[in-house]
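From: lab user (bench 3)
To: helpdesk
Subject: output format question, protein + fructose -6-phosphate

Hello, I'm new to running complex predictions and I'm not sure whether the block I got back is the full result or only part of it. Here's what I submitted:
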Amino acid sequence: MRLLVCDNYDEMSRRAAETLADRVTQKPDCVLGLATGSTPLGAYERLVTMVREGRLDLSRVTTVNLDEYRGLGEESDRSYVSFMRTHLFDGAGIPKEHTHFPDGTDPDSDHACRVYEEVLASVGRQDLQLLGLGRNGHIGFNEPGDAFIPGVHLVDLASSTIEANKRFFASEAEVPRQAYTMGMRAILAAKEILLIASGVDKADAVKAAFRGPVTPQVPASVLQLHPDVTVVVDQEAYSKCM
Ligand code: F6R
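Helpdesk reply: Thanks, we reran it on our side. This is the complete output you should expect:
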């Protein structure tokens, strides 16, 4: 695992965007695993700028996103599919049919999980999986628990996740209590993983995940077992590792 400490959020975002752009330049039809949340916004903005300035072509990539809230789909501006269209896909010219999410609107949760597992299998291994990091150490919505869960699954979101994500909703009561997430098997199947984390509220999670034991109580710690992981953090997120 490589750990790269940047001065601040901007530098972290620049490095993440450069890594993504480099992999797409090397393989224009690559498969990118993508994350939502605040952390990747700066990187996504840079990718959109590169595309607008003609320095990057993302039109041939295929994307698989990590997760989606149960009950939300493209008709909701709070869904992750809407988030990705707003912050990356539309501006970067990634065709809708190249992008994939768990179907948050499927009333049958077992079916939703099965279908997304099939989607992941048909798309093939991610060439690069981008990850953020939850304050509790989650990746995707693989929350702390007694075991790493391999497959796509429906999750009861941890109260700390609901609290952290309420900023995207009108109130905490509106945050869905459940979500679908890619499981650890598909995350670890990625050929390369890039995890980004910024801010002091991630410092405990960074330390626990990358300086502590591999344990399902800290889901991101499983990345220690992957052969090609780059962790890019800013000084604040790194502050408890020193
Ligand atoms: C979202 C996801 C989550 C976030 C994590 C950090 O698709 O996979 O694991 O990466 O909750 O979120 P932010 O970046 O908002 O702090």
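A quick orientation on your result: Strands lie at 2-6, 31-34, 62-65, 67-69, 99-100, 128-131, 153-156, 178-181, 193-197, 229-234. Let us know if anything else is unclear.
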